[in-house]
Amino acid sequence: MGLLGWLTGRDKAAELAATVERQRAVVQQLIRGRYGAAQTTEINKRHWAYADGYAADAALTPEIRRKLRNRARLERDNNPYLAGMVQTLASDLVGTGPRLQLSIPGAAPDTSGVVEEAVYEWGQRIDLARKLRTMKMAKAIDGECVGVMFTNRRLNRRGVQLDMRLVEADQLASPVPKIDPAAVDGIELDQDGNVGRYYILDHHPGATLVGWSVDGRWYDAEDVIHWFHALRPGQRRGVGEVVPALEQFAHLRRYTLAVLPAAAPAADFAALNKPTLPPEGVATALDAWETMPISRGMATSIPDGWDAVQMKAEHPTSTFAEFEKRMLTAIARAMNLPYIVAAMDSSAASYSSMRGDYLVYRK
To answer: I need a labelling partner for 38 at 20 to 30 A (CA). Which of 165, 235, 277, 288 fits?
Structure first.
């Protein structure tokens, strides 16, 4: 191709590109329907500032999971509502423990009962119900819990020696952090993406008597029960069910601390004395902040020229109950609890509404 042909071809390509750009601009002007949430404006840019495109496991780094666990545990240990919610969830799910219902075709009538009774006794020996309740509470707060199956030699005189040892999520961690597509923190994957092994530390990283240590061992996936709360496909580590509601707990605590200082002084001052005479009048002298006893059931006189009034709490204490209910409703929704179960308060509910809430909750 000569120079003239090359220049001509380049001009045609430039002209075609310009034509396509003009057509695209025309189409954009004709399109009226757009996603408002996809637009970044001066009003919403701060709201969406922390949105990212990280993968599920990349977004839950060990440091982020540790911070979420610690904050959720602190809230559970100091908030009676949250402490009650997780205990209610565990009690309602596990109860007194699982029961085996066995049907063996062609077997003697008593055979199924014997096996069911043996499984029940085994669960009692290893305290299975308590361990399952603990796992459920850890799943709600920490996002995950680990049970390691092992042979308990102390059970050798009672038949089955299978037992389960509970491990906190903190101990499920890689000995050396590394970037490996075939591994997640403490979890090794096979070529098909299945979990092959778990690395579990011998001691809790927060054990004060032991100190931080990476000593541990790999356990086969068949010997480990990893129960976690997954929100996204491909997620291998859990995040607590209570995490979306942690901010609401913080708002509720801040509002409570703001209301109490306003209401307490108003309750402390039974009455205040203010002068009723005009400025030129002379009232009986009283010292500033002078106190007077108030006797129950008796008539009490006050100095001439003064009137007794009560202090008014200008803070909106009358709306505190409604604010608390709104916050608890949002918190309960994040944990899949009806309000009457989360707050243990059904005073404003009818029988039919309570029954409807419990039907969905039980399912």
So the answer is: 235
**Which pTM was predicted?**
0.77
- Name the residue among 214, 218, 230, 236 with its Cα closest to residue 57: 236
Nearest alpha carbon to residue 275 among 288, 267, 284, 287: 284
With a CB cutoff of 8 Å and minimum separation 6, the contacts of 204 are 168, 170, 171, 210
Q: What is the 3-state secondary structure (H, E, C) of 66-97?
A: HHHHHHHHHHHHHCHHHHHHHHHHHHHHHCCC
For 19-42, write each residue's pLDDT tens digit.
Answer: 888 888 777 666 666 777 888 888
- CA 51, CA 326: separation in Å to the nearest integer? 26
Tokens for 180?
């490996």
C-alpha neighbours within 13 Å on the C-beta side of residue 239: 21
Query: How far is residue 37 CA from its own chain's centroid?
Result: 26
Q: Which of 296, 348, 359, 303 is nearest to 321 (CA)?
A: 348
Which strand (E) or helix (H) includes residue 214?
A: none
- What's the pLDDT tens digit per position in 164-220? 999 999 999 988 766 666 678 999 998 888 999 999 999 888 886 655 677 899 999
Beta bridge partners of 149: 164
The 8-class DSSP code of residue 237 comes to S
| Helix, strand, coil percentages for the chain (3-state, nearest 5) | 45, 10, 40
Record the tokens describing residue 155, joined without a space. Answer: 């059970």
The answer to whether 197 and 219 are in contact (CB under 8 A) is: yes
* CA of residue 301 relative to chain centroid, distance: 57
